[in-house]
Write a structure and sequence with these properties.
Blueprint (H helix, E strand, L loop, with lengths): L1 H10 L6 E6 L10 E8 L5 E3 L6 E6 L5 E2 L10 E3 L5 E9 L2 E5 L1 H10 L16 E15 L14 E5 L12 E7 L2 E2 L4 E6 L7 E4 L5 E4 L5 E12 L7 E12 L4 H4 L4 E2 L5 E3 L2 E2 L3
């Protein structure tokens, strides 16, 4: 049922398709357990995705070595992490490739919606139904012990958005530089969309340059979701196209911790966003 729901989400241009990691707090203390929810749908709305063996390939806290994110199959939240080192923490999720089919009309609308118009010149888009395999590559950045120190770096996902600006560093405001990598190499021309939790109807769009870099005006405090999609001709005889969906969540901090709690934003599902993360999870 979950796979069917995700397939429906991916098929239409008017349908939501984002997938991301939503931590219980973006600023945990050292040794604090952090609940990690997987969500799919409209940015900062969406539905919870439970932990499933046929979907999950890797789910880990990056460091000197990968620390698996623990959790129970079928459970929500999907994982639990316990960072033990202060500084920027990176949590990553990679799914197995899952296949589905869609009509040619929906496929073309999907390409336009995701900024993948170039796919029409890569190969035939006239075969129906179109067979696609999609892989989820989600990351979230947390500020352990509110240190504001550290740098983001690639962790080996097939497609990943790497923040070259630490959103938790003192004075981080006015913009963010990111780099998009596909199989470790810079990816040019990809449409990158950044959505703030407090203004979901006002996303920011930009395309990566030749070096895979993109600069976005991420200058308002609170949680942000950055997403992008890449598609290639399938490397499997079971599909026509392979798509990779990358996301990055973090919280931009612009004010002292003592006053951050005053900046709260209501979410549509009853949660309240603040500098401490979403409540009601």
């Amino acid at each position: 049922l979950l796979l069917a729901a995700v397939s429906i989400i991916l098929c239409g241009a008017s349908q939501a398709h984002d997938f991301w990691i939503e931590p219980g707090t973006f600023r945990p203390a050292v040794g604090e357990h952090v609940a990690l929810s997987l969500r799919v749908g409209d940015p900062f709305e969406g539905s919870s995705v439970t932990r499933r063996a046929n979907h999950l390939k890797r789910f880990f806290l990056a460091g000197a070595a990968e620390t698996p994110v623990s959790g129970r199959w079928g459970a929500e939240p999907a994982g639990l992490a316990r960072p033990i080192t202060p500084g920027l923490g990176i949590v990553a999720y990679e799914s197995h490739a899952n296949g589905h089919r869609m009509s040619l009309e929906r496929f073309r609308a999907y390409l336009e919606h995701a900024g993948l118009e170039r796919v029409t010149v890569l190969g035939p888009t006239t075969r129906a139904p179109v067979r696609e395999r999609f892989t989820r590559c989600a990351r979230t950045l947390i500020d352990v012990d509110r240190s504001g120190a550290g740098r983001d770096h690639p962790v080996g996902l097939p497609l990943e958005l790497v923040a070259e600006t630490n959103p938790y560093a003192p004075g981080a405001s006015g913009g963010m530089d990111l780099r998009l990598l596909f199989r470790g190499e810079p990816l040019a021309g990809a449409l990158v969309v950044a959505t703030p939790a407090h203004a979901r109807d006002k996303p920011i769009h930009a395309r990566t340059g030749g070096d895979g870099r993109v600069s976005l005006k991420i200058d308002s405090p609170g949680p942000w979701l950055v997403t992008t999609v890449h598609m290639i001709e399938s490397e499997s005889a079971e599909a026509d196209w392979d798509s990779y969906w990358a996301s990055l969540t973090f919280e931009l901090i612009q004010e002292p911790a003592s006053s951050a709690a005053a900046a709260t934003m209501p979410a549509s599902d009853g949660r309240t966003w603040s500098a401490a993360g979403p409540s009601g999870m």
